[in-house]
Structure formats: structure tokens, C-alpha cells
Amino acid sequence: MELLELKCPECNSRDLQYHTAYETKHNGKRAIYKCESCFGYFSETKHTIIAGLKTPVSVIWHVIKARTDGMGLNAATRTFEVAKNTILSWERRFSDLHRVLFLYALVHEFLELIIEGDEAYTKVHRNVPPQESSGWTILLMDRASRFIWVLDCGKKDRRLFNKAIKILDKIIRNTTDLSIFTDGERRYGNLLFEICYELVKNGKPGRPKKTFKRGLHFRIKNKGSQAHKKGRKRPKYQRPWTEHPETTRTIEETDIHANHAEAFFSALRRKCATFRRKTNMYAKTTPGLQRLLHVYWVVHNFLRVHFTTREVPAVTLGVLERRLSAREIFQIQMA
User: Fold this and answer.
1) Over the range 164-192, which residues count as b (16 or more CB within 10 Å of their CB) and which as e?
2) Higher pLDDT among residues 215 and 300, named by residue
3) pTM
4) Mutual orientation of helices 97-106 and 286-302 as an angle, nearest 10°?
5) Domains along the chain?
6) Per-residue pLDDT for 111 more than 80?
7) What sign does the CA torsion over 181, 187, 191, 193 have?
């Protein structure tokens, strides 16, 4: 597996030679390698998230697992008898894996994807009205594999949606056929159309018509009652913009929903302490909430077996050949 292949931290060469080993206090023996290209020496933990840590890897993993199973920061401090700043430091290191694993997932080509988009709200720093909160979290998740592509938080404004749509545009470029389903939020489709469209040239005079890219489907399920509103009523199932004329696959109305995304947020409120309702365990800052969301992203996609597919989402999607162990995830090089 290329993700786990050891390479020289200086020249990225894989032409390595085992040199010697050294004994650690809590993690047994570790190897030192010599690079045959630049003739440098480095430890097997160089540029990994456990570089320089003396704490046993098993202890760090137990803390991370407890945090993604719903345990709050103060509770983890008391239970594992570890300082709060130490746990935060471990989480920051672990969340750095998000960038590496996301880029690794993006290099793969996919024939067909069905993405569900939804948002959820939680408190940050203090209790404010939902529209003023910076704890809104956008989710873009593959329906079949339950692989999470986007899990970002911030205020529910154009900047947050634009960040998610830019990531979605990268996924579209690696997919032959992609469908996106959302619940009522039209900004997904409007922003996506701005950065992901084609000009259909049919030989007729006039400006070419703009449509979604070929092979891209977008459907909105308009939720809520509109009986009290005046004017033309929106249909329950709608495509916000015109699709490419060569995009011919039809979508059944029963498939236009974000039920899996809503179920994920229900689970997230049980497994992520900052999403609990009616408690004081909410995040104190938006970067703190994003850090924990990145930790949850890594555990959900690459370590935790999903109860419906009986496999980790990364394997079901085809990004990995097999499930990674906790020890292997700590050995991934960051550069």
C-alpha cells in the first residue's frame, strides 16, 4: 500500500537500507534507515504524528478513540490521568492526518458517486441564536460507502458553502458520473454552478447556454410547508440549474433525499461531545471544533467499521485495499 511505504524525509526516495535499531522507553525497538540516494539517516517515526512522543501509542489511541466515542475533554483528562494540554496536542497531531489522507483519496478515479449534502448546528463559545453561531457544520458524504468528503464548520454563510463546493469540484473532476442530493439549501447548487459549468455550443447564433458539467446531476428536496407563502410554489423535487444535454441518466424521486446525512448527524451528536444538546461540553472556539471534526473524519473514514457496510468507508469506496490498524495510522509520514 503506497500510503504506508517508507520514504526518505529529505529526498522522498524509497531506496532505503536498514542501518540499526534503538530502544525506546515505552514503544519497544525502532529502526534507523539509511537513504541510498542522499546518504542521510532517519528514524522510522520521522515526520509522523508520533515523532518525539514518549507516551505509548496504545495510550494515545485509547484517548483518541474515547474522544470520538463521545467523551468530553475534561472527562478524558480525569479518566486517563493526562493533562488537558497534552490531549489537545495529541488531537492536533492526529488531525494533521486529515490533509494527507484527503489528498490520498483525491488521486483515485471513481466511475459513479452519489453525494448527500446537509448541515447541522452546534454551540461555540456561548449560546447564541442559530443564525449567529459559528458552529454550523457542512457534511458531504458518499451514500454507498458512507465516506465523508467534507466535514467543515463555521458561520452559515457564503464562505463556508464556497469552501465545501470547491472541494466538491475536485471530486467531480475525478468522477465520470456524480449525483448530488441536498435538503432545501439552494446555495449548494448556485455556488456549484458558478464554478462548475459548461457552455453548450449547438451551432445556432447567440450566446452559448450554460449548463452543469456533463455527467453531473443535482437535485434539491424542498422541505417544509409553503402553504402560507404567496406566489408560485416550488416543486418538492427540483434541479436548480439546467443539466448538460448529454447527461441522460434519470433519477427516481425516491432517491432524492439526504437521509444518510441526517442519520450521520444523529450519530455525531452521540459520539462527538461538542455536538451534545443541553450540555456545557460545547466547543469554546471554531478552530477547536474543526480540530475535533478532523479527528473524527480520520477515525470514521479509515479506522471505524461502519455497521451497515461491515467495512471502513475508505475500503468500501475503493481508496484502500484493506482496513488500517491503529498502529499503522500513526506511522503514516506527513511529508
Assistant:
1) bbebbeebbeebeebbbbbbebebbbebb
2) 300
3) 0.90
4) 50
5) 1-46 (2.20.25), 113-277 (3.30.420)
6) yes
7) positive
